From TrEMBL:
Cofactors, names only: FAD
GO terms, molecular function: FAD binding; oxidoreductase activity, acting on paired donors, with incorporation or reduction of molecular oxygen, NAD(P)H as one donor, and incorporation of one atom of oxygen
Spans through the membrane: none
Alphabetical keyword list: FAD, Flavoprotein, Oxidoreductase
Protein name: FAD-binding domain-containing protein
InterPro entries named in the record: FAD-bd, FAD/NAD-bd_sf, RIFMO-like
PANTHER family assigned to the protein according to its UniProt record, in alphabetical order: BINDING MONOOXYGENASE, PUTATIVE (JCVI)-RELATED, TRK SYSTEM POTASSIUM UPTAKE PROTEIN
Location of the FAD-binding domain: 4-350
Length: 455
């Protein structure tokens, strides 16, 4: 039987992040993935400001990911063929957000590029993803857990790990091996999706939300491409995958006659699917943990899934390292659930409410939505202040752990930044090297802790 400190199951964004963090912390681990090759489908698109900040702890290479990303300048809301202005990134230009993060924007990058960025970082560290490897069973005890791995050649291997982390998605074998519930439900509607080439001046750099009898979302992507997602009415539900004509017909019913229609061509992903909203009852069970989609799945509104999973793994990774090095007791790992479970619950609740409101199949609710939303929109995103608040929320810059057991003892201090809050970013000038400018959060790279004193 082989042994390791941590067995990571699943090499999607959450698993890759955990592997990168443990590698930086010099903790022995293995990373296994059941799929032989990476998917060529775009899947998750949104990469948010807080995620980009977190990834800068792994070096200067984040620009390589940004070079593959598009940037959304804002969005338009269409209700019954009438256009209403929505979020506009220019509203951020004169707010504190501009100086509080170096990434004040909404970015879209195919998960293909995001995973490739992680693969390069792991490759630089000599980390190999073991694939295709399937976990057949997991049994834990008070000292660790044993997993049986099935290899491509038909052989099996038993691996003993001090901890096992499930980053293996919605059907997680690790979660099924834990004493937890996966609480939630499925949305009743069927949805269709395409990633496709697109020629449409109206769509350059701007997202569009169309509401009428059904719902459609248009997301611009880099390189003259776009993603379209639409709800499919129950009477039109089909066992067949959608065609590009389905999207052309749908968007034609959403736009007024005087607006040129998008020219869609060369689709490279066409799919139909149902969505779920679920979260585990706890992120830890003894020696087993879950992160990312293995812990929480929710609607794609706001692009929260990939970003939340990456931040799950960073949170868990440095804590595993602290325990495995002997710096902290095993109970220190309970703070992972304390800090990340409320985030998952909050996102699940908020995205579910918004998604249900936007995609409701109920005719009366649709009429009410289409009547009320134009009046509510200005107060939601119509000013610099409201636009900034919306950006901060969806970009996860407001995530905080104030009530965590490892934080709340830091009482008695007052100010805009308290224990458990995100550390702000901003330009600083060093006292050496002729006052070279850098960013505050660049000081946080590496595995050490940092104390900042301001005067």
């Amino acid at each position: 039987m082989s042994a390791t400190d941590v067995l990571i199951v699943g090499a999607g964004p959450a698993g890759l992040t955990l592997a990168l963090e443990l590698s930086m912390q010099n903790i022995p681990f293995r990373l296994v993935e059941k799929e032989l090759e990476r998917s060529d489908k775009s899947r998750a698109l949104g990469v948010h400001s807080r995620t980009l900040e977190v990834l800068t702890r792994y070096g200067d290479s984040i620009q390589q990911l940004l070079d593959c990303a598009g940037r959304i300048a804002g969005n338009n809301l269409w209700i019954n063929k009438k256009r209403y202005s929505g979020f506009d990134a220019s509203l951020l230009g004169l707010t504190k957000v501009q100086s509080d993060t170096r990434y004040p924007g909404v970015f879209t990058a195919s998960q293909v590029y995001t995973e490739a960025w992680f693969d390069r970082r792991l490759g630089e560290r000599g980390i190999v993803i073991e694939r295709p490897v399937t976990v057949k069973s997991i049994v834990q005890d008070g000292e660790g857990a044993t997993a049986v791995l099935a290899k491509q050649d038909g052989s099996e291997e038993s691996v003993r790990a001090r901890y096992i982390v499930g980053c293996d998605g919605a059907h997680s074998i690790v979660r099924h091996s834990m004493d937890v519930e996966f609480v939630g439900d499925a949305y009743p509607q069927e949805f269709i999706l395409t990633d496709t080439g697109c020629e449409w001046p109206e769509g350059q750099g701007r997202a569009h939300i169309f509401l009428g009898d059904s719902m459609m979302i248009f997301l611009p992507m880099k390189g003259g491409k776009a993603r379209l997602v639409a709800s499919r009415p129950e009477h039109l539900a089909s066992d067949a995958d959608p065609t590009l004509k389905d999207f052309q017909d749908c968007i034609a019913t959403m736009l007024p006659e005087d607006i040129p229609k998008p020219k869609l061509h060369d689709p490279y992903w066409l799919a139909r699917f149902h969505l779920h909203h679920r979260c585990v009852s706890k992120y830890r069970d003894g020696r087993l943990f879950v992160a990312g989609d293995a812990a929480h799945i929710h609607s794609p509104i706001g692009g929260q899934g990939l970003n939340t999973g990456i931040q799950d793994s960073v949170n868990l990774g440095w804590k595993l390292a602290a325990v495995l090095r002997g710096d902290k007791p095993d109970a220190f790992l309970d703070s992972y659930h304390e800090e990340r479970w409320p985030i998952g619950q909050h996102l699940l609740r908020e995205t579910d409410q918004l998604f249900t409101f936007l995609t409701t199949p109920d005719p009366q609710m649709k009429d009410m939505r289409n009547m009320l939303l134009p009046h509510a929109l200005p107060s939601l995103v119509g000013t610099r202040e409201t636009g900034s608040k919306m950006f901060i929320y969806f970009s996860q810059l407001r995530v905080k752990y104030r009530h965590s057991s490892i934080v709340h003892t830091a009482a008695g201090f007052e100010g805009p930044v308290l224990g458990g809050y995100r550390a702000p970013d901003g330009k600083i000038r060093t006292a050496k090297d002729e006052g070279e400018e850098s960013w505050l959060q660049d000081l946080f790279r590496g595995t050490g802790h940092h104390l900042l004193l301001f005067s």
